[in-house]
Amino acid sequence: MDAAESLRLAVRSIRGHKLRAALTALGIVIGIAAVITFVTLGASVKAEVVGQFDDSPANRVFLVATPSDDGGPPAALSQPVFTEHDVSRIGEIEGVDRVVPRGTIATSALTHGGETVARDQVTATTPALFESVTFREGDAFADAGSGAACPAEMVVTPSAAALFPGNLSVGDQVSITQRGNRTRNVTVVGVLGDDAGLNPLAGFGSQPRFYLPTCAYDTVVTSPTTGTRQNVFPQVTVVAANPGDTAAVQDRVQDYLEAESDATQLAPGSYEVSARTNEDIVERIENVVDRLTQFVTGIAVISLLVGAIGIANIMLVSVRERTKEIGIMKAVGATNRDVLQLFLVEALLLGVGGALLGVPIGVAGGWVAVTYAELPLTLPLVWVGAAIGIGLVVGVVSGLYPAWSAARVDPIDALRYE
Amino acid sequence: MTGDVASAEQPAVELDAVSRTYTRGEPVYALDDVSLTLARGSYTAVMGPSGSGKSTLLNLVGCLDTPTAGTVSVAGEDVTALSAGQRARVRGQEVGFVFQTFNLMPRLTAEENAALPLVFQGAARAERTERARDLLDRVGLGDRTDHRPSELSGGQRQRVAIARALVTDPAIVLADEPTGNVDTETGERIMALLDDLHAAGNTILLVTHQRSIADRAERIVRLRDGEIEGIDAVDPTGAA
Ligand SMILES: Nc1ncnc2c1ncn2[C@@H]1O[C@H](COP(=O)(O)OP(=O)(O)OP(=O)(O)O)[C@@H](O)[C@H]1O
Ligand SMILES: [Mg+2]
């Protein structure tokens, strides 16, 4: 019997039990849809996060203090261990152009022109952060050099400016309510050109951000080296003077951190102070996202498995129900192989049909999830192709035993079967 | 049929000391040491009371069943020694089987049912359709090709089953009470068809309860309790 004919007969028998076939395929539809949804979400998260790091120049070395088990949480959880002493010492290392510390100031709200916006933090940093960054309007705040009064100035990202009606612009007065109800009045001196790329360590890009000079920063510690009270930062970005030297600078900074830094002495026992380049971080984040994706996809695969068992179950029932038909086919010359082929094709059709239906539903699900998470959609096309392959395999594997048992039916017994 | 001289001499069907025993508690001897030869082109009727082993005999010749003892040869080939695949080929090509209980595929139309054996022979669609239509015409069902078995009367179903048995143009036709479920007119039509097949040189083995039907054959095998009670030659002048 040729394949086209078994396909025709299989379609025939599926049509004969439309509802049952639909319910059977539903298991595969849901399984494939779930897998594609999660894989799409994972791929989109990865593309977005990794994209941000790819945006930032190759001459950066990021210093973080993170839990030491490999591939731990992203750098956003970094501990404040880098003292001002560390920052200035690192600035003296050969090949380093500038060092940009970054810390967070806990806040409760920002008020401008009668409008109050709830915010739980603003970022403290040095003007060095804004070198080689374009401003839509205004400029960086002044350097809070030692001795000089702390400039009451603030730089905002476009999305931060947009939080207030009519957009914040240069010269606007903003009143910041810090934790403990202290109020700080600042003037907006600059609005950045775009949201992306400035702060890759802190998570997703387009979050609104407000930047204050480091003199407004209030997380302090006694430097073990100098014995004085100093600001201490959770994140430090080291910019190499020459992108080709980034690796060498990374090594030297790492050496300093290990040998004599305040950071290593301040880091809690289970934390590791490290200097990482873009590549390192991209790799780590990819690992974390991959592992998460694998985990959730694994759960989805279980539902695929349930779908496969559903097909096997229905096919077994179907073989039993059609024992007489099998007997008739054998009586008029069908070989065991013909019967096997017929039932396999039927299982295969259910599997592939389910997969074909599952793909658009999964893509739609992925799109909804990604839209909800406000990420750009990245479609893992390989998986869309793979889904159809999986449907095929699931169909064959789950149909194998039922088809085999159908092929073995003894014609004379089958003809007597009522 | 393969046409070399040696095979032309061979009988179409030969049963040699065939027994078919069912052991379900008390053993049932459905067939007990039966030897029977059907010459090529012969027309044989089998008669006997219900349960005497008539269907069992046909099933053995039709390769649907295997004997517990003895050998069954079809076209000179010992079918008891064949593999499952080879037996499927004998069922599909050498013999045409008309069942006592029709055994049609419920979801297929009359035409598809009649064409089914050709599907497993790998025949092209157009050829299958043509053959099936031709045979349905011959059994008087040319206007029912698109009906499913459930939309046909008992006699019509029987005729679809006959069309299916003949669609591969088998050398041996096995018919288990083909007129058992039809009115006399349809029965006559079916018998005329068997007469035609006989005239065309096919070997026919027919089970019937009616003496008048059996008399159209060349000889009558009388079965009782799984054994051959006697074989009567039919007087052709008396049968006419
Ligand atoms: N699967 C089976 N298990 C046990 N006994 C069986 C089986 N099939 C048939 N038999 C027995 O074998 C004997 C012969 O059966 P068979 O069907 O050949 O009779 P038959 O002559 O065709 O009868 P009928 O005229 O009623 O069709 C019967 O006694 C029957 O009970
Ligand atoms: Mg019978």
TrEMBL record, chain A:
The keyword Transmembrane applies. Pfam families: FtsX (PF02687), MacB_PCD (PF12704). It is found in: Cell membrane. One of its GO terms (molecular function) is transmembrane transporter activity. Keywords: Cell membrane, Membrane, Transmembrane, Transmembrane helix. Residues 299-411 form the ABC3 transporter permease C-terminal domain. The chain crosses the membrane at residues 21-43, 295-319, 340-369, 381-401. Belongs to the ABC-4 integral membrane protein family. It is a multi-pass membrane protein. The keyword Metal-binding does not apply. One of its GO terms (cellular component) is plasma membrane. It comes from Halorientalis pallida. This is ABC transporter permease. Its main location: membrane. It comes from the Archaea.
Automatic annotation (TrEMBL), chain B:
Transmembrane segments: none annotated. CDD domains: ABC_MJ0796_LolCDE_FtsE (cd03255). Gene3D superfamilies: P-loop containing nucleotide triphosphate hydrolases. Keywords: ATP-binding, Nucleotide-binding, Transport. Residues 13-240 form the ABC transporter domain. GO terms for cellular component: membrane protein complex; plasma membrane. It comes from the Archaea. InterPro entries: AAA+_ATPase, ABC_transporter-like_ATP-bd, ABC_transporter-like_CS, ABC_transpr_LolD-like, MacB-like_ATP-bd, P-loop_NTPase. GO terms for molecular function: ATP binding; ATP hydrolysis activity; transmembrane transporter activity. This is ABC transporter ATP-binding protein. It comes from Halorientalis pallida. The lineage of its organism: Archaea, Methanobacteriati, Methanobacteriota, Stenosarchaea group, Halobacteria.
